Amino acid sequence: MAFSPEAKRLAVCAGWIGPREPGELTIWDLEQRRELFVLRQFQPIRSVVFSRDGKQLLVGDFGGLTRLFDPATGSVLTTLPKRAGIINSAVFTPDEKAIIFGCFDGTVTLWDIATQRTSYVFLVPGERIIKVAVSPNGEYLGAVTQTGKGHLWNLPRRLKLRSFEASKGAAGRPLPSAEAILFTPDGKSFATAGYAALRLWDTGTGKKLREFPFASYGMNALFTRDGKQLLCADGEGQVSIWNVGSGEKIAGWEAHAERCSGLALSQDERQLATAGWDYTIKVWDLEKRMLTGTLTRKKP
Question: CA-CA distance, 41 to 25, in Å (whole number)?
Answer without folding.
Answer: 9
